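FAQ: What does the model actually see?

It sees only this:
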Amino acid sequence: METSEFQKWLTRIDDLTPIQRSRAVEALSNDAKDGESVAIIEDRVAGDRCCPHCNKPGAAKRGMVDGLQRYCCSNCGRTFNAVTGTSVSGLRKREKWLKYCEALRDGLTLEKAAELCGIHPSTAFRWRHRFLKMFSDNKPVKLNGIVEADETFFLESLKGQKELPRPARKRGGKAQHPGTSGEQIPVLIARDRSGVTFDAVLDGLGKDQIGAALKPVLGQDILLCTDGSRSFKAMAKDAGIEHQAVNLKAGIRVRDHAYHVQNVNAYDSRLKGWLRRFNGVSTRHLGSYLGWRWFLDCLPEEAKNPKSWLIGMLRPLPG
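And it is asked to produce this:
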C-alpha cells in the first residue's frame, strides 16, 4: 500500500463500528503473532550460522526459500535453513506454529487445536507428533540422590490402524483379561526427590529391560526406592546400586521416615488423569504423550510460555 493510500485509510477509522474495530484489532494482532513465530525460527541460526550437517559456524546467506533464509556452509558446501535437522523440518504454515504451541500448553484436543489455529484436524495431528518428538527423544535427565522407581501400565491401543489383529473395542475400553497381561504396555517412571523425572516405554518387565532404560540416567551414589518388585531388586544388585524396597502389599507406605515411592506414584496418578482427555492413546505414540506430560510437569515455568515450546522444537534431533 502506498503512503498516501495508507493515510487515506487511517482517516476512515473513525467510521468503523465497534465490531469492525474489534475485528481489525484481532487481524492486526494475529499478523504480529505470525511474524513473531517466523522471527523465533530464524533466530535459531542467525547468530553463529552453524551448519547442522558438519557443526561448523560461519555459513553465508544464500537467498530465501519458502519464506526462510537459506545458508550455505563454507566448510561442507551444503545448504540449510533454520529448521534443517529438527523435528519440524518440512512442515508448512510455520507462521501458525507459535499459536499451535499454545494448544500444546493447554492440552487441547486435536479438534480444538485445529479450530484455534485455523488448520485441518489431520494437520493438527501431524503437527502434534512432529512437535512432541523433541520432548520424547531428548529429555535432559540425570537422577541423583534418593530415586523412586515404579512401573505403570497402559492398555495397548491400535488407534489409527486400519487392520487389527484382534476385534476392535471402544476407545478407552477395558482389557479382556484382568491384571497385567500382554494387553498392557509397561512404562517405567523414575523420579528423584528434587523432582527430576524419567520415563520410558518398556518391552518387558525383566531386570534387563529395566536396567537398559534406567542405568544410563542414574547419577553416582544414588539410593533406589521401589515396591517389592523382584526385577528392580535384581537390577539394583547387578548394577551395585543400594536398594530399599517398600512392601506396599503389607500396607507399609513409608519406612524409616525416608524410604517410600509416594512421589513417583503421585506422578503416575497425574499422568493418567491428564491422559484421560484423549480417550485412549495409541501405543505407537505413547512416548510422545509421555514427553508432552513430562515437559508440563517437570518444567512448569518454561511450559507456560509458548515460545519455550517452539524453541525446544527447534533444537537439533539427537543422532
